[in-house]
Write a structure and sequence with these properties.
The chain has eleven helices and twelve strands. The chain is α/β, with parallel strands linked by helices. The chain has two domains: about 200 residues, Isopropylmalate Dehydrogenase (3-Layer(aba) Sandwich), CATH 3.40.718.10; about 120 residues, 3-Layer(aba) Sandwich (Rossmann fold). Helix 1 packs parallel to helix 11 and helix 5 crosses helix 6. The protein is globular, with a radius of gyration of 20 Å. The chain binds nicotinamide-adenine-dinucleotide (NAD).
Length: about 350
């Protein structure tokens, strides 16, 4: 019997619908050539839901996600006023305990990167740190945000990163600010050292986050796997996306024990909404990561090689890559390669 994967598909806000629809088209083209089916189940979530439902994650959508094998998520706009609904991505990461945020950072053919031939991965703890949402006003003009770091979550993410390093060049850099955040990053550092005992073949370096951001510009080739806490990982991965090429190319996977959510690293870029202008590759590569996680390795490679072939040819280039092709031109070029 042909295996069918149910995919919760959340188009999101801003440029989300454009890049998600482009990705679904490419995934459907791959599915046609494969011996599995993808059943896209569309759910509403994001800023545009707040007026209608009073929340950015309606309970119908949450129920829909629970019935699926994986989630393909477009970027969403997060309101910034205190008391407004919190980020959908952060909420879903917590609900499904998607503790590992995996962001491959690599150079692509014909795409200008700061240094040639870059290939490293940022593994970001995805459930706690400064994203715990525990923030309050102590007195007018005095606020506090809790940076929650636990041994349990740190050990889990460290172990995940070591496993990944074992499949790659066996080098891990753990990034922290232990000279200032002695207790919280002390817990994180101790957990990495504990996990290290099980992976004697992996060479380990540690780096303060400020030095790590500098090295990312100066000599990004030193990295293989970077593991770090939530906010540091978020900042480093946007920087890494630009160092390796463009935010329009960077994909991310949110992985838990039994569920995975796949999305571009970028946000909803509201100023480009509906302009058919942005690069869909980040979301298409997130789709490739989803197929890989589902175990459909050949199909995942097919999507990736189609993207690489289009970039190699260099004829279809979106504005972020210095060209004038549209979002749909790029999607069509990629699916023609599939
Ligand atoms: P952003 O990533 O949306 O945009 C920053 C800039 O990056 C854009 O102005 C554009 O120049 C470039 N860019 C982004 N995506 C691109 C693409 N596909 N192709 C080409 N260029 C691209 O970041 P922001 O402006 O800080 O955030 C906008 C909104 O997105 C905010 O509401 C934020 O909360 C939200 N956000 C959501 C997620 C998510 O859903 N996971 C992640 C990050 C930001």
């Amino acid at each position: 019997m042909v295996k069918t994967y149910k995919i919760a598909t959340l188009k999101g806000d801003g440029i989300g619908p454009e890049v998600t629809e482009a990705t679904v088209k490419v995934l459907q083209a791959v599915e046609e050539k494969s011996n599995f089916k993808l059943d896209f189940k569309y759910g509403e979530a994001g800023y545009h839901c707040i007026a209608k439902y009073g929340t950015n994650l309606p309970k119908e959508t949450l129920e829909l996600i629970k019935q699926t094998d994986a989630c393909l998520k477009g970027p969403m706009t997060t309101p910034e006023e205190p008391g407004a609904p919190v980020s959908v991505a952060v909420t879903l990461r917590k609900i499904f305990n998607l503790y590992a945020n995996v962001r491959p950072c690599r150079s692509f053919p014909n795409v200008e990167s700061l240094k040639p031939n870059l290939d490293f991965v940022i593994v970001r703890e995805n459930t706690e740190g400064l994203y715990s949402g525990a923030e309050s006003l102590l007195a007018p003009g005095v606020g506090v945000a809790l940076r929650i770091i636990t041994h349990e979550a740190s050990l889990k993410i460290a172990d995940f990163a070591f496993k990944l390093a074992m499949k790659r060049r066996k080098h891990l850099t753990y990034v922290h600010k232990g000279n200032i955040l002695r207790i919280t990053d002390g817990i994180f550092k101790d957990a990495v050292k504990e996990a290290q005992q099980n992976y004697p073949e992996v060479t380990v370096d540690d780096m303060h986050v400020d030095a790590a951001t500098m090295q990312l510009i100066k000599q990004p080739g030193i990295y293989d796997v970077i593991v770090t806490t939530n906010l540091f990982g978020d900042i480093l991965s946007d920087e890494a996306a630009q160092v390796t090429g463009s935010l329009g190319l960077a994909a991310g996977a949110n992985i838990g024990e039994s569920y995975g959510m796949f999305e571009p690293v970028h946000g909803s870029a509201p100023k480009y909404t509906g302009m058919n202008r942005v690069n869909p590759i980040a979301t298409i590569m997130a789709g490739s990561m989803m197929l890989d996680w589902l175990g459909e390795k050949a199909a995942a490679s097919k999507v990736e090689s189609s993207v690489i072939n289009v970039l190699k040819e260099g004829k279809v280039r979106t504005a972020d890559l210095g060209g004038s092709a549209t979002t749909s031109d790029m999607a069509d070029a990629i699916l023609a390669k599939v």
